[in-house]
Amino acid sequence: MLASVEARAETMYVKSPTAELKSSTSANAQILAQFSRGTSLNVILKQGNWIQVQTGGKKGWVYKFKLSPTKPSGGDNLLAGLGGGGASAREGSSAASIRGLSPTSEKYAGRANIQPQHVEMVKHMESMKVSQNQVQEFLKAGKLGEYQE
Amino acid sequence: MKQFLGIVICLTTLFSSLPAQAQWKKLLKQLEPKKETQNSNQNKGSKTENLIFGGLKALQGLLPIGYKEEMAIGGAVALEAVARFGGLFEDPSVEKYIATVGNAIALTSDRPDIPYYFGILNTEEPNAFACPGGYIFMSRGLLKLVQNEAQLAGILGHEIAHVSKKHALETIRRSKALAGISEVTLTALDKDPQMFDSVVKEVVNMIFENGLGRTKELEADKIGVEFAYRVGYNPNALKSFIELLKPHMSGSRQFSLSKTHPDPKDRAQNLQNVLSQSNYKGSQSLPLLADRLVTSLSNIKL
Asked: Does the distance separating the beta carbons of A121 and B82 come in below 8 Å?
């Protein structure tokens, strides 16, 4: 009997870089905590686009699409180690640290006669940063998703 | 021949256990006649290794490509995009606006753990595409046609879907240009610029000329709608934008968008089916945010 109860207890993981634990599902809810990617949460209830979770004695609501039923592992290559990929960068913790035009791409620019101004333009695209907070403020201003009234 | 068949069978049997490649290489070295090992080309791998890994590649169908390698290829394709389509249209406020919508979508997408980069190509021709690694482009001509933020979200959702499903990468993994190698590493790509250039050429032709194919495009539409909906946008907007594209894709003007994407009628019908699914019930009332788009683009002449 105990085993079946345990089997039903569902764990979900934060898949977005961050996810906020909110006091309610309303747009003006208080933020109780902020979780980072990979944090595991015990599911209590699912309601529309919200999931009520509990972790470390805290209970609240997280926007459903920031969670995943599987642990984000950076498991980019299932076959890593066999067909290769062992030495390659995995997604996840390492992906965030790899930013910008690869030296391999820059060498290509030289061979393919891509003008320096065009190389600068791609670098310009890469230089544009939008923070998590800016995204949240933007969503709030548009009353979108988790800020829907 | 018998020995080779034996090795292949042995590999097939052990395939499911996924041992480390180093062990395979050791095993292969032991199997190889000494003379052949001495004459083998270190960079390309021995004949037996190529045979085995060629066979192995055929068995597993796909050559794994890591994020670093995806970025190297995608970066080169992004350079080609900028060089071929009039450079970038640079306006900090508009670029920031598009990157913010794009990032909002990326964060709740199925691949939220990589950075995405957004650029406006300075061309009248309406087009949008995604390069491996997360370089997303839309043209000034396409942006001109967008009526509201939800449509913009649908378009960016479609492009992020291509990256998240690794559509272009899947084709590279089967690429003939990579037939000779067992592992796509940056070292391997750097050592053989000719091979790297062939791979880039293949992706460039696919994205700019021939397209990814109907199945992948319709899939990107379906997922694009889902991604925009996750952020909270009205999911019907992508369909309305594609319907808007119809007059721009017919007639004598041969835009690459019509060469690389299915007919708008086909796409709209597919989206109609997608939107009739129960999870989009009641979504008609979700925001389009036409005003915010208009305000955000008001200071520039597209």
From this structure: yes
CB contact under 8 Å between A118 and B185, yes or no, is no
* Among B28, B62, B82, the residue to mutate for chain A (most A Cβ within 10 A): B82
A vs B, Cβ pairs < 8 A, gives 217
Chain B residue with CA closest to A141: the answer is B292
ipTM confidence: 0.83
CA distance A6 to chain B (A): 28
Which pTM does this prediction carry? 0.81
Contact B246, B265 (CB under 8 A): yes
CB contact under 8 A, A114 and B189: no
Intra-chain end-to-end CA distance of chain A, in Å: 42
d(CA B215, CA A71): 29
Per-residue pLDDT of chain B (302 residues; tens, 9 = 90+): 444 444 444 333 333 344 444 444 444 444 444 433 333 333 444 455 555 545 555 545 567 889 999 999 999 999 999 999 999 999 999 999 999 999 999 999 999 999 999 999 999 989 999 999 999 999 999 999 999 999 999 999 999 999 999 999 988 888 888 877 778 889 989 999 999 999 999 999 999 988 999 999 999 999 999 999 999 999 999 999 999 988 777 543 556 777 888 889 999 999 999 999 888 988 999 999 999 999 999 878 87
Say whether B96 and A130 touch across the interface (CB within 8 A): yes
Every domain of chain B and the residues it spans: 47-297
In DSSP notation, A72-115 reads ------TTBTTTB-TTSPPSSTTGGG--S--HHHHHHHHHTT--
Measured in angstroms, the CA of B262 and the nearest CA of chain A are apart by 28
Q: Which of B10, B15, B21 to mutate to test the interface with A (most CBs of A within 10 A)?
A: B21
Please name the residues in contact with B165: beta carbons below 8 A apart, sequence gap of 6 or more.
B110, B216, B219, B220, B223
- In A, which residues are within 8 Å of B55 by CB distance? none
Residues B137-141: contacts with CB within 8 Å, 24+ apart?
B137/B78, B137/B81, B137/B85, B138/B98, B139/B85, B140/B89, B140/B302
Nearest CA in chain A to B113: A92
Neighbour tally for A72: CB within 10 Å: 17
> Scanning every residue of chain B, which has its alpha carbon at the shortest distance from the alpha carbon of A76?
B66
B201 touches chain A (CB under 8 A): no
| CB burial string B243-271: b at 16+ within 10 A, e below | eebeebbeeeeebbbbebbbebeebbebb
